[in-house]
Sequence to fold (68 residues):
Amino acid sequence: MNKWKIYAIVMSLIAFGSVKETFRILTSDAPDIKDNRAFLIPIATLLAGVFIFLAIRLWRKSGNRNLS
Fold:
């Protein structure tokens, strides 16, 4: 297995967890989240986007092989 594919799978799992946490931040009524929601939403969406971008980028890199 290609090392980039392993990195892509790990990033995909991290991205899935970050999307799940972002959704929890957006929908939670917990007092600690509710008070800081304006600060947490941009950070959570930015991190989720970065992890998704890295997962896609690494997955594409794993498919680029020279067959020479």
About this structure: The chain has a mean pLDDT of 90. The helical segments are 3-27, 31-35, 37-63. The radius of gyration is 16 Å.
